Every structure is written in C-alpha cells, then in structure tokens.
Amino acid sequence: MREVLILTENELRQAVTLDIESVSLIGKAFEQLSAGTVSMPPILRMDMEDKNGEVDVKTAYVPGLDGFAIKVSPGFFDNPKKGLSTTSGLMIVHDADTGFVRAILLDNGYLTDVRTAAAGAVAAQALARENATRAGVIGTGVQARLQMQALCMVRSIETILVWGRDAEKAAACADDIERATGTEVRVADSVADVVTGSNIVVTTTPSRSPLITADMLHPGLHITAMGSDAEHKNEIAPEVIAEVDVFACDRHQQSAHLGELHHAIGAGTVPEDMPVAELGAILSGTIPGRTDADQITLCDLTGTGVQDTAIATHTLAVCLANGFGTKIAN
Amino acid sequence: MREVLILTENELRQAVTLDIESVSLIGKAFEQLSAGTVSMPPILRMDMEDKNGEVDVKTAYVPGLDGFAIKVSPGFFDNPKKGLSTTSGLMIVHDADTGFVRAILLDNGYLTDVRTAAAGAVAAQALARENATRAGVIGTGVQARLQMQALCMVRSIETILVWGRDAEKAAACADDIERATGTEVRVADSVADVVTGSNIVVTTTPSRSPLITADMLHPGLHITAMGSDAEHKNEIAPEVIAEVDVFACDRHQQSAHLGELHHAIGAGTVPEDMPVAELGAILSGTIPGRTDADQITLCDLTGTGVQDTAIATHTLAVCLANGFGTKIAN
C-alpha cells in the first residue's frame, strides 16, 4: 500500500513564501532549462469558450531531482462576477524513479503566483541596472503586487509608480505595495508616465493590444513583460522588440509562439531568427545580459514547467520536513 | 472554504466496473466528440529517457457536463523489474463553471483501464459482425484480459485465441480470460493463427513493428488496434490499412499523428486524405460502419481525453451518491 500526501493551500503558504530563496530556486531552474538537460514539452491548453474559461497544464523533468511536477491552472474569467477568484488549480508531484504520485499540492494557484513573481526578480537580477532605484508596474492584480515585492528583494528600489485602467484598483494596489515593501508608491496617470519615470518596468496585464510603445523607451530601461502567456495576449509593441539592445525570455520557443516575440515576428519588425537570450544562459554566463548601463533590455516571461517542478519539489520537501499534510493510503 | 474530495483506488473500484453501462458511457462520449461540440486539445506527452519513463496528460471539455477531467498517466517501463506496476496516475475533476478542483481520483490507472476496454467494446459494437463468435487477442497484459471481457458483453463469443511473445504469460492470460468470461480460451502458436481463426481480433501490445500483415486478412474480419498511442508504436502493417473496407478510429487527428494511420501514411500505402470513419460518427449514424458481413473493418484506438472526462465525471457522481471519499477543506 502506497501513500499520497495531500497538502492544503494553508499548509503550502506556511511552507513557502516569496523570498530570496524562492528567487534563487527559480534562477537555478532557468539555468537547468537553458543547459538543455531538462525535458519540457509544449504547454497543454484547452479553451472552454461558453464558460469564458481555459485550463493550462505545464510540466518539466529535471534530471537529478527526485520528483517532477505537473501543474494544472484553470482560469475562469467570469468568476470575479460571482465573488470567486479567476485562477485556481493544483500541482502534482510524481516520483521521478517510478512515476507514482507522491503528493497533491492544492495551492489554488498560490505556488504559481510565487514562482512567477520570483521569475520577475530573476529577470531583474540578470538584466536591470545594478543602481536602478525607480520601478514601475502596469496592472493592478496579484502579480502587480508580488512583482514589486520580488523586485525590492534584488534592487534597492526607492520609488514605485503604478498604472491600471481602473484608478480605484490602482490606488488599492499602490497602498498594498507601499505596505508590503516600505517603498514610496504613487499612482501614475498613464503607461507613458510609468515607463519614462522608471528604470525598471514590469507589465502584468492580460492585454490584447500593446501598452508599451517605442516612443516611451529611454537609455538604461529594463522591462519585464510577464502578462502574455497565450497567442492573443500582447503588452509590448512590435517596434519595441526591434529597438531593445537585449531581448531575453524564459523560453525562446514559448516566447516565439505565445509571447511578445510572437507578435513582433508576426508584425515583421524582427526576423524569425533574431538573437534571443534565454534567462538561464545569461545567469550561467553562457551569453551576456546587460553589458552597459545605458542599454535597453527586455525580458518576456511566458511561464515554464521547469519553474513549477522547481517550486513544487522544493515545497514538498519543506512540507515533509515539517510533517505537514494528510496522508491517504492508496 | 471549499472542499476537495479525495477518492482512493479502492473506492473507485467499488464505484465503477467494466460493464455495459461503462461501454454505453464511452460510446456516448465518442458521439459527442464526433459531433464537434467537444473541446479536446492534443495530448501533452513528456519523455524521461534516463528513467525509461513517460507521462501523458489528456483532457476534454464536453459542454453540458458539470465537470471536466484532466488525466495524468505516467508509464515507467523499468517498474516491473522492481515489482511495481508500469502505469499509475490519477484523474482530476474540475467544476465546469468555475474551473475549481472538485475531486482527485487516485485511480493508479484503473479508470483508464476501464474506459480503454470499454472503447474496444464500442468499436466491436460499431463494426464487428453481429454473429461473430470467434475472438482473438494479441498481447497478454491487463488490456488483453479486459478487452476480451468487454467484447464478451457485446458479442456472443464462443472461443478466444490468445497470443503473446512469452508462452508462459500467454497461458496465464488465457486462464484469466477463461475464468472471467466463461468462454473457451486457447493459446495460439502465432499471430497468423489468431487472425485467421477469429472474426474479431484485438491487438493490445506496445509493439514497434507490425504484428498483423495483409496476408492474414479474410472476409468478415474486424480488428481493433488499441496498442499504438505514440509515434513509434505500430501493430498493423501499412498494407493492411490500404486493404480494409472500413478504416475507423476514435479520433482522426490522433490516429494520423500517433496511431496506425500515421504509419500507413508514412509508408505511402494510403493517401493523407483517405476516408476515415470516426467511431462517434458511425454510432450516431452520420456515416456507415460495416454494411456487409464480408467486409473487413479495422478500428484504431489511440485513447482520448473525452473518454477520461466521461468516466471521471460519472465515477465522481457514483462516489458522491455513495458518500465515498475523504473531504479536504481547502
């Protein structure tokens, strides 16, 4: 008789938080991904149009880890009207030697929030100016908050600008970020105000048309675009991709199919074979990231299964060490 | 606070068995699939070569059902050397209105076994001669046993021939089938003996080279090929696909990429646009199946997410009605 460990969101929140350890874990995962040893298939995605819903499944196998994770992320966009969260889901950790199910992490999307924010910090570490002090965020959701928290762990941020379509939500988001980071936070009047006033900008929206345009760029800027994870989403104008000095991403193939690179190739502003720096390759020193304080850099994050395997196996180890969870004999 | 219901293999085995109700359920699922209302993305597949392992994820959304399932099927082929089963895994049932996780079905592959065998019975119902009495099975694993049990529910089978590469395993399989079905079962000397001596043959192997060749075909034969579910697997010679009167399958697109059709197209024995009858279309009467007792028919089963959603949502309903499972507050 085998056992499966069931972990609740509450237990998972106790086990792992967005901290410098999570950031380091995700950075290492990207290095493994770019080193070519990881097996990571394309994302499974299913749309349920009559429900305004979708589900994504991601996975990756990292040789050397004792487990691999499968992450299931539903997104149902009418949920907020019912007072429910848009996203939910879970991660499954399998034994890497037998394939057997070891644990179910009922995180309702929490671990995805953590690993996504951690990836933003990794992107800033790899590409943003060391002396960046002014940050900005486009969007007012959970990731707007978490991305700014993560960024403050890796750069000495002094001021943060927030922009969202809904001024009330932007104000609430600014308050939350100020409380969480102890940094001075202001609501900006426009995307252009955020970008021109910041050294580092993170875009966190599900936008279907570009928010950041080429006229907003200025020397030394770093942009992390984390909103687009599907063909129809687009936060960055195709001209921007052509103008930046370094175009980086978590996974080249995904950015070219689901992310910002996809739109730039489609618009013809960049060639299909344009040079792309994967974060992992920059982190491991295989290819350069920012080489000059005045360069403009951009990192497109589409979200990868290797992040899920990294956070899930780490979280399970912490939970086991703490005796968390309900064991189901099976 | 929401609840997630955790169901063990034991509970699932009590809730659902391979019976005529499961067969009917799977037949209905195929009809829905071929009617075009179902959303079913391509299978996610990841190989872990250094572990001789793989994992498949399947899903489908059937409008009208209150849930959709995601099925995770690991296959680790060194497990038997350790005294462990090759396959394992689980199904997750999500609420179709919110995407939230309703239940985890820790079936270790049991529900896949049931829905796969049920699909074999559906294929025989749709395509085999009404008066078929002689059946044969190639392979000696769990599906060899279950396919013959399922077949005996839908046709009046009097004798069964079994062939496997390992004579000892074939004998054990024959004994098990005889006990389960009450039918006379014999071990055959060759694949050719099975095929020439049967009205209905089911192939259940992971073979990488064809087992059934064109010279074995005879009038009135029906073959169900359920072994191939990946590019490199192949049970039926390309010439056979060209010679049969009706080529059917569970899902055209999958057969053309992962199944027997894929090899025939690759070998050039059939054109890419050859007429293919999906099981669901035959069952709903949209296109004819067998129209003459002397026709030779073949059905390629690659396994579909719609079967998983059908069996999982049905099983969950039975479990809820019986008060099965462990509720986890989350």
Automatic annotation (TrEMBL), chains A, B:
InterPro entries: NAD(P)-bd_dom_sf, ODC_Mu_crystall, ODC_N. One of its GO terms (cellular component) is cytoplasm. It holds the Pfam family OCD_Mu_crystall. It comes from the Bacteria. PANTHER family: KETIMINE REDUCTASE MU-CRYSTALLIN (PTHR13812). NCBIfam families: PRK08291.1. This is Cyclodeaminase. It comes from Pacificispira spongiicola. The lineage of its organism: Bacteria, Pseudomonadati, Pseudomonadota, Alphaproteobacteria, Rhodospirillales.
